Task: structure prediction
Amino acid sequence: MKKHLIIIFLFVLSGITSLSGGNLWAYLTYATFDSPEGPYIETYLAVDAQSVVYNRLGDGNFQGTINILMTFKQNSEIKAFKKYELKSPVVADTSKRDFHFIDQQRFLLPNGTYEFEVQLSDQNKKAEVTPYSQSVTISYPQNKPAISGIELVKSYKRSEVTSEINKSGYDLVPYVYSFYPQTDSKLIFYCELYNMEKRVGEGEKYLLSYFVETLENNQRVKDLAKVKKETAKGVTAVLVDLNINNLPTGNYHLIVEAKDQQNQVIASRKLFFQRSNPYARLTIDDLADANPINSFVEKYTNIDTLREYVSSTFPISSGLEKNFMKGNLKTASLAVLQQYFLGFWQRMDPNNPEQAWLAYKYLVEVTEHNFGTPVKKGYQTDRGRVFLQYGAPNVRAERYNEPSNYPYEIWQYYSLPNQSNRKFVFYSPDMVTSDFFLLHSDAIGEIHNSRWQVDLRSRMYQTIDITDTQVINSWGDMQDDYWTLPN
Result:
C-alpha cells in the first residue's frame, strides 16, 4: 500500500479538514491578529508523540524530530516561509509517550488572501511527504472595527516577559483541538478587538458579548452567554474562562460580537467546536416555556403520534434538544410533549411555527418514501438525516454495481451554512436492508474518515494496517472520480 503522512487540520475559521495517509499524526489550528508591526497569523501545532519514531541519545534517553515547512503564497509567489525542526520532549522510556507536544509560530503578513501550505515529515522515518494547503484571509483595515481570530487556550498565567506565547500580559498555552471531551470542564478563549473608537468614539461605551449557540439551529445556550459594557479604544484584549461542565454533547459555535449603543453589530467572529458530555441532563424547563393552550399542538392528543412527531425532529435538533429526547421522550406526559413540541417549532419559526412544522412534516414523508427501510424510519437513516438537515443535494451520484466497492452514493452540496462544496459518502456494507450508512464527509461537524476508500473497497480487499488510507486503482471503480467531481 502507498503511504502518506496523516495530518488532521482543525482550521479555526473554516472548520475541520483532514489529509489521509500513514502514521504521523499532527493537529493544526491558526488564528489571525493585528499588531503595531502589522497583521500576523499564528499557527498552533500538536504532534502525537506515539506516532513519532524516537532515536536513542548519547545519555540513553530518546527523542524524536519532526521536519516542518510552512509557506504562504500569493499567485505562486512565496510571501513568507519557515523551515525548521521540531524536537519532541526527551523520554527515558519510549513506551510512555501518551502525550502531544506543541509548536507555535507567528508570520507577519499584510492583509490579503494566501495559500497556506504545510509539509511535515518524521526525520527518523522514510515516508512520502504529502503537502496540505488551505486558503486563509487576513483582513484588518486600519480605520474599521474588527475582531481577531479566536484562540482556544489550554492554560494561562500572568507574565511580563515578552515571548511568542505572551499576549496582553499573559502567557497563553494554546488548546489546539476543536473537540472538548467529557473530562474538560472549561473552555478558555482569547481574542482582541481593534479600532472600536473609530465607530463609537474614543472613550465611548459599546457592548461586548460572547455566547455559545448550537450549530444546527442557532439556539443560545443558557449560562454560556454574557454581555458587558466596554470603553472604546485602539485594542481591547478579551480572555474568558467558560464553565462547560453542563454543556451536553453536540456541535456548537462560540461567537464574539461588538455592538454600538443602538444595538447594531460592529464586528463579530465565530468559532466552531464540538463537545462530548453524555451524562449532561436537561429538563423541559431548560428548553421550553411555551403554552400549548390554543396553539396548533393542542389538537395532537394521541401521545404515541406526538412521540413520533417529536422523534422525527431529531435530524434538525441541537445537541441540547437531542439530549432532552433521549432522556424524556419515552416517559414524558402528553402535556410535556405538547409543550416541548410547540417550543421547538417556535424556536424554528417564531412567526408561524405551525407552517414550519407542516413543511417539515412533508419532507419527513418524502424521506420515508425514499430512504425508509424495513427496520428504520426514513428520518432515522443516515441519508434521511442528511436530507432533512441540509436539504436535497445539488448532485447525487449513485453507484450500486462497481466490481470492488460496496454499493455507495456521493452527495454534493454547492453551499451549506458557512461552507461551500461539501460532500457526503454513503455506503451499504450489508447489501440486504438497502440502508446506506454515512462513511465520510468533509462538512463541519460530520464524520470524517480518512480511510473511507479502504472501507468502501473492503468488500473485496482487506488490509491489516489500520493506517492505510489509499487503495490500488481497480477497473470499473469510480469513487475517486465521483468524489473529485460527481456528475
